Amino acid sequence: MLLTEQTHLSDSEGNENNEKSDEDSKREEEWDTDLEIEETKEPFDPTGKTSYIAACQRYGVVPISYFLHHMKDSELIMKHHGLGPQGTKALALSLMTNTSIVKLNLSDNCLNGEGAAAVAEMLKENCYISDIDLSDNRLGVVGAEVLSAMLLENTTVVSFKLSGNEFNDHAAKYLANAILANKKMEFLDLSHNMLGDTSGEVLGMAVAENTGLKELNISWNYFRSQGAAALAKGFGANIFLRVLDISYNGFGNNGAAALGEALKVNNVLEELNVSNNRISLEGALRFAVGLKENQTLKSLNMARNPMQNEGCLGVVKSIQANSSAVIEILDFSEIPVNKDFADLCDAVKMLFPNLQIRHDRNATLHIIKKNQRLRSNLDST
Does the pLDDT value for residue 11 go beyond 70? Predict the structure, then answer.
């Protein structure tokens, strides 16, 4: 009887030991699996340093020490570094995982269309960069196409500078698609490009429907009468744009008249720069008609237009006749004006105490007095 009980106890203990052994082995197996997974995981690289060095080797370029030293900054300024397409590809791969940089300046780096494509792919993945400058990179039509496609997906970029990139009428259709569809971008710089009348027509329609842009710079392009009128029509329909720079184009008198019509209906635009646009006396007077009804414009720059003294008078008189005007700055720099214009300015300032009117009358008087003194000295000798 005793032997039977001992045997039973031995069997029980053996079973318990076997069960414990099985459980322990299971735990060990589970622990081994966790370690194996941990060993295969790559550490998270929030700056992209590791991927940048590997990408430089892949594309056969030398890592840029400045980038390595500033990868954790919120703003990265890398203009004039001669990146080229290959260097840009390496940089873009690194920036895909970078979580520090929110402002990126890659201006003047010879990116070309190939480099633009790399940046575009990066911006589809990176959700931290909100301000980017790709000016003076010869991006061309290819660059316009890939970056515009990116803007159809990206919801982070709010400021985009694309000045001086040889964008022409062929590139405009891609840019127009982006302007039409993107609702997050607030500032766009397309200055110093080769956008002409055809561009004006497609961009004008896009601007009319855009619901995000607050500031647009399209200065130093080739917008003439027809394209200028189309753009002006788009500006008139837009209900979000606050600042518009169309200086150094060729709007001429017809473009100025179209802008005047836009100012009649637009109730949001606050700053307008139309300097150097070949606007003569006729164009200035037609433009002034719209100013009589506008209630939002605070700053108007009409400098260096051949509108003469009478054109300047017409613009100021339109402000004088508009009791709802909120204009604070009028710029007529480098336009010859007479004493009657200066007197009118003084009278209008009585109605609008905060109004600043910039003109060259004081400088002209100074030159006249200086010449008179010189003549007087010569006569006396």
Answer: no
| Model confidence pLDDT, tens digit, residues 313-351 | 999 999 999 999 999 999 999 999 999 999 999 999 999
Choose among 253, 262, 244, 263: nearest CA to 285.
Answer: 253
Q: Are 300 and 272 in contact (CB under 8 A)?
A: yes
Residues 6+ apart with CB under 8 A from 67: 52, 76, 78, 91, 94
User: Which two structure tokens, joined as six digits, stand for 57?
Assistant: 């080797």
Q: In the Cβ-directed half-sphere of 92, how many Cα atoms lie within 13 Å?
A: 23
176 close to 152: Cβ distance less than 8 angstroms: no
User: What is the C-alpha separation between 257 and 260, in angstroms, rounded?
Assistant: 5
Q: How many CB atoms lie within 10 A of CB 22?
A: 10
Coil, strand, or helix at residue 36?
Answer: helix
- Give the separation between CA 364 and CA 359, rounded to whole angstroms: 10
Check pLDDT > 60 for residue 12: no
Question: pLDDT grade, residue 376 (50/70/90)?
Answer: low
Contact 281, 311 (CB under 8 A): yes
